[in-house]
Specification:
Elements (H helix, E strand, L loop, with lengths): L25 H4 L11 H15 L8 E5 L7 E10 L6 H6 L10 E8 L7 E8 L7 H14 L8 E5 L10 E5 L4 E2 H4 L5 H18 L9 E2 L18 E2 L19 H14 L7 H17 L8 E4 L8 E5 L5 E6 L6 E4 L22 H4 L6 H14 L1 H8 L1 H15 L4 H18 L24
Helix pairs in contact: 6-10, 7-8, 7-12, 8-12, 8-13, 12-13
Amino acid sequence: MSSTSSSPSSCSLASTCSSNDSQIPERYCSSYIPTPSCALHEDLQPKIIQLFQNTWPGTKTAHIRIKKFWPTGGHNRIIRINVKAKTKAKSPRQDTADGVVEHTSGMSGIDITGVQEDKLAPGRYMLRFPYHDKHCWMEYEVAIISFLNTHFPLAPVPKIVNHSLTSENELGLRYMIQTRLPGSTVQDVYRTLNTTQKITFAWDFGCVLKELGSKSWPCSGDLNPNSDVNDPSFLPPDIPSIKPRCSKGELSKIQQPQKPQTTLQYILSTFERQYSRTNESACSPFHASRFPKIATALAELGLLNDEGNYIVHHSLHERNILVDITSSTTARVGGIIDWDSSSFQPAFMQCRPPQWLWGHPFPRSCRDERIRYTQPDAKDKQSIRNAFVWAVGERWMRLAYTPEYRIARVVLLKGINGFEEGECGCQWAKNTLEKWNAMRPEYAVETGCCEKDGKESCFRQYC
C-alpha cells in the first residue's frame, strides 16, 4: 500500500508565497502526473481490473463486472465499487448501493465478487483519480482525511484503504480507494424527505458541526501533506504542521510551515499577500488595503479573541453532504465528502448557516446573504431549524448570526481568495465596505469608487 511521506514538524515561521515556480520544492510538484482525458476511458479498464486484483488478491477477472464506465465528478473521476464475499449473498446495504434506493447521479459502478474473507473486507468503496492535477491536490486530501480519522473518529468522513501519489502503479495515475459512505447527496434527495425525517437530519447535522468545532489548533492554514498524523512523536503536542492558506495556484509554493498567530495577525497576513500580487487590477490594491481596517476594528471590538483555529470545510454545499434514510421517520448524516478544500481557520469561518435545511430552495438562493439570515415562517420549517439550533449549540449560532461575524467571513475569504477583477468585483467590494460602515459608523472606512458601477445582479455575498 502506498502512502504519503512523513515529515513530522512543529509550527515555525511562514514564508510569503513566491511567484517563481522554479522555487517550488520538488516534494510538492514531483507527483503532478498528467491525467488522460475521458476519451481514453476504455484503455483504463484493464488497468483498473489489475489494480483491483492486486488490492483484493485472488480475485479472478471474471469476478470483476464493470456495469458502466463513464466516471464523473467535479475534479476527480469517481467509480463506485461493490465488493462481495466469495460465499455470501448481497446484504441489504449492497442492494441499496446497486441503485434500489440510492441516487448515484450517473456514477459508474464496478462489482467484484469471489473475494476471500481474510483479505480486504467486502463492502462499498470508491475509486478516485483526478482529471487534471493542476486543479486537484490529492496529497492534501489524503492528509486531511487521515487527520480527520485520527482526531474526529466519530465524524462521518470516508476512510482511505489504499492510495498512490505517483504514476508508478497499475493505473499509471495517482489514485485513492476509500470507503463509500451510505446515503445520497442532499441536493438529490432532501426535497423528498418528510418533515420528521428533516428534523432528525437537522439534529444530526448540528451534532456533526458541533463535533468538528470541539477541537482547535494554534496554527491557521492548510495541513502540510508531509505531516504524519499517526506518528507518536507528532500526536502528543497536538500541533500539526500547517502551511499558510493561499489562493488557488499558490498552495504548492509554500516552503515553510505556518507559525501560531493571533486571528488578527492571520487575517492581515492574507491581505499582505493579496496586496503584493494584485497590481494588475485597478481596484484590488485599494480594497485590499481597506478590508484589513475592518479586521482591525473587529479586534478592537473584542470579536477576534478566540485565538484557536478549527477545521473548516470550504465546500460544505448540498452536493457534498450525504443523507442516509434509515426509516420513514428518521434520516441521518451519512457522510461529508470532498475535503480537499478544507483548512484551519478562525472559529467564525465554521459557522455559515445551512439555510437549505429549513429555508429556500438551493443551490443559489440560499447563498444570498439577504435570504440566508431570514427566519422561517412555516411551523414545520421552524421545527427543523429548532432541532438544528438545539444540536449545534449557542456558541455556533452566535458566531453564525452576529452581523459583524458575517462581515468577518467576507473579509477573510477575500484575503484568502482575492478580489474579482473588473467592475463586478470592484462594485462588490465597495458594497461590502458600505454595509460595514452602516453597521459600525464609528469604524467607517473609505469605500472608494469604480470607473463604472457594477450591476447588483452579478455579485452575491458568500458569508
